[in-house]
Amino acid sequence: MTEAVIDAPFVSTSLKVRPEWIDSNGHMNVAFYPRAFDLAFDEVYVRLALGQEMVSTANTSTFASEMHLTFQGEVFEGDPLRITTQLVGLNAKKFHWFQAMYHGEKGYLAATCEWMILFVDMLQRRVSPMPDDVKARLDRVLAAHSQLPPPPEVGRYISMQNRRRAG
C-alpha cells in the first residue's frame, strides 16, 4: 500500500443489485448479500495487497472463519450499493472486519456483515502469523479505523431482543 492516507472506512461504490440476485419477494435474496460484501472486500484486498499476488508470491492467504449478517432494509434490482469496510480488530494471526451496506442513492442501511478472517500458510494450509510487512500495513489500517465509532452490530449474536441502530 503506497498511499500515505488510509481511507477510514474503505468505501466501495462499484456494485448494483443484479437481476439474478432478486428472489420471489422482489428484493435481493439473502444468499447474495455475502456475495456483494465479498465483492466489496475484494477491492479492499487489492488496495492492501492481500489478494492473489500474496498467494502467488508468498504462499500465504486468508480464509474466512466466521461471518455474521444483519438485514436492515430492502434493496431491489438495479439499486446502487455503497459498502463500507472497517477493520475493528487485529492480532498476529487473524483480523476482524465489519462492513455496512447502504442504498447508494437513498443512503439507508440495508445490511451489515461482520467477518473473522484467518491468516494462512498455504503450503501447510494452517493458520500462521502474518509476515511483518503485512502486519505493519494492517496496523496502519487499524490505527486509522480506530478513529471511527464502533459499529453497534459488532459482536452481536442472535437474540429475541431487537437491538437496531438508533436514528
From TrEMBL:
Chain ranges passing through the membrane: none
Highest taxon in the source lineage: Bacteria
PANTHER family reported in the protein's UniProt record: 4-HYDROXYBENZOYL-COA THIOESTERASE FAMILY MEMBER, BLR1345 PROTEIN
Protein name as it appears in the record: Thioesterase family protein
Species this chain originates from: Dongia soli
